[in-house]
Amino acid sequence: MVSLARIAEDPDAWRSRLESSDGVPLVFRPLVRTDAERLAGFLAGLSSESRRFSTFDGHDLAAAQELCAAIARYDKLRLVLEEEASARIVGLLEFSLSLPEGDVERYRKAGIRLDEETDCRFGATLADDYQGKGLATLVFPLICDVARRLGKHRIILWGGVLADNPRAIRYYEKNGFQQVGPFTGADGRTSLDMILDLGSSSVFTAPGGEA
Ligand SMILES: CC(C)(COP(=O)(O)OP(=O)(O)OC[C@H]1O[C@@H](n2cnc3c(N)ncnc32)[C@H](O)[C@@H]1OP(=O)(O)O)[C@@H](O)C(=O)NCCC(=O)NCCS
């Protein structure tokens, strides 16, 4: 099983090339410390709607520097999609390897016992001009591969998905996530918990089984 420190030591080993549906060559790779300015460009370029859906702490250089400074220091693994020719960052794919108590409790009530050994959190955000073209679906097998290499068997959504974000809900469902249920966040907004089992088709405890 690979560690976050190991990925940070040799990020090039995790690079993959792919092509958007309109033929733009792209690179998928871990975020590196020297990405701060380009990551700031990505965050600053997000529309107000994308900002609302993705809920980053900030959208300026300081926010980007914080994300870069966090590499291999905490429980997060961030990967980017960048245009190969311009090196413009057009997507941020994020894993968290920790599970907040509130998430564990919500899932427990829904009959799913989360385990930090085998479960992780994930969220995706693309630049507005790259949304709705199948790109996050194209990269999803690589996401699953990263999760497996981290020793994970299941992926839950990081902070859930807002109930009024039908494109993201469709995206996650078409890539195999199952809806677990709605919850109300600290800000009063309704979100949905969703989970993907990387190995089997159902994640719910069998009727009568222990939750
Ligand atoms: C959510 C996101 C990562 C998905 O990536 P993407 O590359 O745009 O997704 P895809 O194009 O692969 O899939 C989107 C699906 O939603 C469908 N869709 C688009 N708008 C929709 C809508 N209003 N209602 C229902 N489905 C919709 C698309 O048709 C497509 O499904 P299909 O292939 O069956 O036709 C991306 O759109 C994004 O970054 N959005 C802004 C940030 C965000 O919402 N992040 C998620 C936070 S949980």
TrEMBL record:
Organism, as annotated: Actinomadura coerulea
Keywords assigned by UniProt, alphabetized: Transferase
Taxonomic superkingdom: Bacteria
GO molecular function terms listed in the Swiss-Prot or TrEMBL record: acyltransferase activity, transferring groups other than amino-acyl groups
SUPFAM superfamilies attached to this UniProt entry: Acyl-CoA N-acyltransferases (Nat)
Designated name of the protein: RimJ/RimL family protein N-acetyltransferase
Residue intervals of the N-acetyltransferase domain: 26-199
InterPro entries registered for this protein in UniProt: Acyl_CoA_acyltransferase, GNAT_dom
Gene3D superfamilies for this protein: 3.40.630.30
